[in-house]
Amino acid sequence: MERAQQRPPTGCALELLVHGVGGTTPERMLDDPRTVRITGDDTAAVFRRADDVDAETRPGKHRGTPVPEAYVWCNLTSGNGARALWLLLLPFMVVNLAHWMRPGAPGRPRTTRLYGLLVRLAGLTLTVLLVAAACEVALDLTAWQCAGTRACAARHSWLGFLSPAAGGWWSAPGRRLALAALVPATLTGLLWYLAHRTWSAYESQQPMSRDPEPEEDTGSGSLGRPGFWYGRRLVARLRAAHTAAGLLTVAVAIAAPTAALDRRPGGPALLDVLGRFLLVALLAWAAAVLWVVCRRGRTEHLLDRRLDRHLVRQLPLGALLLLLLTAVYAGWSRPGWTSAGRLAGDTAFGGLALGQGLLVVALGITAHALYRTRPDPRAVLRGLGGPAVAMLACALGGVMSGGVCQRVADWLDGTGTSIPGPPVMLTWQASVIPPLLLVLLVLCGRLAGRAWRLARALRATVERDHPGEPSDPERTRRIARTRAMATLTDDAPLVVGVTSAATLVLGAAALAGALGTGRTPAGAAAGTHPALQGAAQTAQALGSWLIGLGFVLFVTWGRRAYKDASARRTIGILWDVGTFWPRAAHPFAPPCYAERAVPDLTWRMATWTRSTGGRLVLSGHSQGSVLAAAAAWQLTPPVRGRVALLTYGSPLERLYGRWFPAHFGPAALGALHRDVDCWRNLYRLTDPIGGPVRLTGDHGPEVDHAPLRDPLAYGRTAQHPLPAPILGHSDYQADPAFAEERGRLLARLRPDLPAPRHGPPELPDGEPLAGREPPGGTGAQGSAGRSSA
């Protein structure tokens, strides 16, 4: 790399464009129907205009303007229809986000590791919850309750061979449970397969080799560490542990009722001993799973290429062997054994809810301790954003589990009287949904009222921003309303905080009600005041209907996304934002596309500057600016000296800096500003996503440009004879300030005539900055298609 900087400069400059969420095409990014792939594959690639393929050999053609080059990464997230199934992994993705939301606290490595451990344990409970819900549906509701009840089995002929009335070999309760265990076991195997397949495609992308760095947080940002985007060892360990945990959950669901029967007086002594042995073995293997999850976190200060192959193979295989032994044990003949009532679902789901609540509380205490080390007033919820999001992940898991169980129970039991139905705990959890929605409705009403009042107040500001223009009240109202709506993004922490707090309180009440009374809310309220009885019955019925409706809508959206490209693109946008981070807390979360995109950008910038010695502007829009910043962190200092950073519509500080303060907080962004040679950020007041970076002169020259005008013209002008649109988050390159600021960055990078770092330099060819068009002659109108949301 040092030799690369000693090459004679060619005078060529490159603008590497990185699009945002939702994706786009290279033709739109480059504003040319003829594009050529320079490097990459069908998943992610770098493109140029056909006329610019050999631009390095003809530097005079682009004198004063860079050669545009587009990095297209949208197929990493929103490609084929199978990825719509990732919607079912939403709780895993959310809890993985909570891992990265810890407050920045240099000098507190033990507390930081404790935070990561608690989030990994919360992720493990979500895996157990998902498999437990599958066990509830397949083993309890179907094989135990419905198949064991004559009326229910008669309504479903496909259960006839399991019914005791048929007298077949499979009619024994233990054999029914063993057969039904194929459903949750297959689900666990499917999750393992998806995690392994994506692990091979994403985590196997190796970043550029660099010298190891100390594990201590030096304040320069953890995203610059050599092994940050290479977590294949941890993901492999967690995949093995979570797969084993899922198989053990199925084994316990079979072994617990069978062993309880064998422990009764007069039972076969051999089966009693075998049952106790299996339970001890399951407990010991569960302890091994916990040890693997707790033993080791991420290794970021170096590229850890090793794999724990024996552990990765033996942990799931041992759990599978125990599951097979448990199925054989349950299938042993036990005359007189009949299935009645429910399995121990209340104990299982109640224990999971209690464990998740305690983990969230412990996570909140740990996050508060980290926040006190270095308070950041801009951090979400004073450093409690991670615990709040972890609570939402647990709530999502509970809603999905309860919805599945409720819908299946309603389908199996048409009359509602033939089988006991789902566990009481799930009914209590469904009953707290109506008051939770009421709290959210009140909060959203207050936020809408505040936005309306702000829009009215901003009308005077909009008129002052356009002095001398003819008055147009409707135009003024539209601009003011757009600005007010854009501020709602900053209220997201309040919504998340209130939702999480209400969920924690109502969940604790549901747990106390389920374990304290052992009856449904309506049953517990029986004999009390009529108003209380009516409220309990209404909450139970409405909650059951809502949780079932939510599950149906969830599945419907997934089916639509599988068939409809536009719906799949919408889900892809969700993954673009949610899967930027590596899988550190849950291996079954959707894969991290940045583990492919960041090395792609790093390799491209390093190899291009090495071969040409030219200047490079890394130009990122929206989520592309986050990828650009992450790639700039990964560059070595000699390469960073030839790279300028241009961000627009960027959520770096507004979203990532507030929600992920340890990685994009003021210290990290300030270090990035010092590391790259120059950086400029563009934003609009009408943009609901992008915003200022808020770096002052203490870190060097000002990063933020003044807010861009939007719309470009208030009324009709000679340059805009038709009404100019309100652009908001899109089409930043349509603003003349874009080419102006890009030219200044290139001038500052000029190797033979460096511009003063604190002054506004001129373009290399001495032409005026104002009115300069982007490369290829695309002006304010022609470049409109080059920016993507």
From TrEMBL:
Keywords: Membrane, Transmembrane, Transmembrane helix. The chain crosses the membrane at residues 84-102, 114-134, 177-195, 240-261, 273-294, 315-332, 352-371, 383-404, 424-449, 492-515, 535-558. The keyword Transferase does not apply. Residues 205-224, 745-789 are annotated as: Disordered. This is Integral membrane protein. Residues 753-763 have a biased composition (Pro residues). It comes from the Bacteria. InterPro entries: AB_hydrolase_fold.
